[in-house]
Give the backbone structure.
Amino acid sequence: MLWKLAAVFSHPLKFPMVKVLQASELPFIEVPRISTRVHSDSGVGANETTVWEQWMESDGFIPMHYHDTEEVLVIMSGTISLELDGRAIRLNAPASIIVEQEELHGIRPVGTEKVHLFGIFPTAFPKIFDESGRPRPLPTHDQTMTENPYDS
């Protein structure tokens, strides 16, 4: 009986409704101000979820923007200033933030520690808009936003 069990586990498991991605298969994109590992989105085969793992150095930032869907931010390490329309909230990791659809927000690190966070969306096709409502590139493609709007 044990030999049958061993034979079953010696062959790769195949499940037609499950996609397994190893680290080497996860896109890792570095652009000015932020690095992103894509765990899930339309580009890696997801139909309804986006998960970005991101790192920001102390001089990095996520500019003010909003989405067409809810976003959950999970701050894993570091301290951030969550910039909202007219106010800022300082948060130390670990922390979770639920940002409602069309809520204007931005993030900047506080202090010298690198910030590690996850951005999670209930769609495989998240859209980003700037303060004026113009579409913005996804963080994996944003080569244009290099000037930190939070600097004094």
